[in-house]
Amino acid sequence: MDTIQILILGIVQGITEWIPISSKTQLAVVYLGIFKQDPAFLLSVVLFAHIGTLLAATVYFRKEMAEIAKKFLAKPLARDTYAKGETGFIFGAIAMTGIIGVPILIIESMVFQNLDGMIIYLLLGGGLIFTGLLLHSQKGAKQRETKSAGLLDGIVTGALQGLSTIPGVSRSGTSTTGLIWRGFDAESAFHLSFLLSVPTVLIAEMLLYSCGLGSGPVSFATNLLSGSGIPFLAGLGAKVAAKCAGTTVMALPDALLLALTSFVVGYLTIGFILKTMKKVNLAYVAIAWGILVIVFGLLGAS
Q1: CA geometry: angle at 135 spanning 129 and 137, to 5°?
Q2: Are 160 and 202 in contact (CB under 8 A)?
Q3: In terms of Cα–Cα distance, which of 163, 271, 272, 9 is closest to 176?
Q4: With contact defined as beta carbons under 8 Å apart, do 261 and 10 qualify?
Q5: Which of 117, 170, 192, 232 could form an S-S bond across to 22 if both were Cys, CB 3.0 to 4.6 Å?
Q6: Structural contact between residues 151 and 92, judged by C-beta atoms closer than 8 angstroms
Q7: What are phi and psi of 199, to 5 degrees?
Q8: pLDDT, tens digit, for every residue of 192-233?
């Protein structure tokens, strides 16, 4: 990729990470559909682009994150730490996201290797339409505010957020829907969703990074499956390992430029989007964009 393409990808990530239209889908469409780049680098592009917005969210919510960490470290073994307040919300959301999301990722690792480009675009478009339908369900008077969040809110939010591992499904779209279903007002829902993005994306980045290097949690999981002695699980482990082995890492200067661009753009836009999203219904935008992606795939994009 040239410098202009890297900057464009960073800008796309820095803006769409905060908008419920699936930033990873937008990166895939631009990288593969418009720039016609090598699919082997896509995982690496997604990883470094998200590192930038992860840092942006961390800096933006630094005081709140520090307060949450302080409360957790003060009583790390206390029951209330995992059941009440924002710490309980984050704990419940992360745990449920893993329970729902990891099996979906494993299934995808088996299925996606055999799909052609057109089918991938159809799945991405379908995921965006699903996101739009979720956003459309965010109706009714909502009264709850951020400070009232707790474990049960995290469990419901995490269950929906786990679905964002499906291509085209937005993390912020699913998480805000869960929060609004739980009675939070739009501003509080987006605030908690963006706050939740820090630990969620951090864990996801660790998994993606370990997959790219063929070591760490992903490698451990694939070795465990491969050595299970159960034919189906052993085959599954081999397929996941093969997928990770095919990952190609970006050149370091390109990766740093991509992460820096997404960080700067992400930090500059997060506050504005946080204030704007409570007034804007993007349901129809997500659905329309999903239809366009499907049309793009049917026209033979790859």
Answers
A1: 110
A2: no
A3: 163
A4: yes
A5: 170
A6: yes
A7: -70, -35
A8: 999 999 998 888 777 666 555 444 444 444 444 444 444 544
